[in-house]
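User: Here's a structure from my thesis project, written as structure tokens. My advisor, Dr. K., wants to see whether a designed sequence matches the one we expressed. Can you design one independently, without my sequence as a hint?
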């Protein structure tokens, strides 16, 4: 099997079959592993999954949360670029959890901050405080609205994934602005979301969004990646390493031929790394 693919300067999907691609790497497409969560986080996530009846569907994430344009940084890019202790890690994980459990009814939750801290596997000494700070961050980004209730848990209401501040509604898949992808519950119940850093989780979201439900290896040109997601190459490299180390992605070096429309006698093939989601991250696995 040739590992040379054509280039059009945009997003690229490997044209061959997944099985052949993995066999070339000597990898398996399926791995079963125990949860990475210790108690009480493991119990809290299981209770949440059962209570919300979201085991099969997971979090429905609009593409506008991940994908921007040349002049518009999407919410994911804004969270990844946050500075300070922990950066945007807790707000990002909390927002994904809110999408998972708040997509029904009025799109609200009123869980105690300490309970969210358990679900996110945060240290009990500082977890609730970090959750409250994350709630404030998400509100400032226009992703949620907050109703404080003295003596009671704060009511959090989802807003549109784009950060526009518009009311939330379940995505339908069409038109393009309403396209979405599914972040599977197994990524929560196995403790994988909780144990990824900001960069790893961001790259997991980007890969899941870009394959559009068809699990094929994927690569981008550096310029397209930065303009599409507003995430640095350093973050991309760090995040991919996390996913490879967690056995959620395999990577392979490909030889990319020049774009035929721009090819000249001086054009040369280039080498790029392509990535394939596997195991719990594979969108085709239920």
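Assistant: Designed independently from the structure alone:
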């Amino acid at each position: 099997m040739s590992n040379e693919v054509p280039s059009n300067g945009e997003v690229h999907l490997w044209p061959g079959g997944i099985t052949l691609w993995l066999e070339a790497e000597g990898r398996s497409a399926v791995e079963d592993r125990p949860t990475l969560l210790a108690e009480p986080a493991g119990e809290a996530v299981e209770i949440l999954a059962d209570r919300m009846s979201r085991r099969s569907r997971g979090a429905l994430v609009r593409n506008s949360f991940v994908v921007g344009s040349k002049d518009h940084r999407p919410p994911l890019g804004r969270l990844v670029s946050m500075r300070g202790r922990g950066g945007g890690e807790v707000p990002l994980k909390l927002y994904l959890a809110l999408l998972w459990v708040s997509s029904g009814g009025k799109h609200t939750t009123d869980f105690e901050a300490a309970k969210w801290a358990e679900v996110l596997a945060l240290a009990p000494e500082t977890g609730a405080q970090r959750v409250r700070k994350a709630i404030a961050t998400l509100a400032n980004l226009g992703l949620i609205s907050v109703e404080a209730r003295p003596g009671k848990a704060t009511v959090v209401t989802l807003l549109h994934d784009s950060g526009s501040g518009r009311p939330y509604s379940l995505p339908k898949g069409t038109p393009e602005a309403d396209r979405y992808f599914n972040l599977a519950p197994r990524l929560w119940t196995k403790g994988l979301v909780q144990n990824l850093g900001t960069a790893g989780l961001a790259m997991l979201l980007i890969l899941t969004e870009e394959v559009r439900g068809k699990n094929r290896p994927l690569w981008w040109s550096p310029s397209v990646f930065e303009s599409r997601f507003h995430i640095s190459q350093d973050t991309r490299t760090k995040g991919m390493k996390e996913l490879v180390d967690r056995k959620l992605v395999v990577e392979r070096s490909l030889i990319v031929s020049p774009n035929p429309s721009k090819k000249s006698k001086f054009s040369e093939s280039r080498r790029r790394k392509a990535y394939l989601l596997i195991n719990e991250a594979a969108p085709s696995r239920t």
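When you compare it with your expressed construct, this may help: Confidence is low (pLDDT under 50) at residues 1-15.
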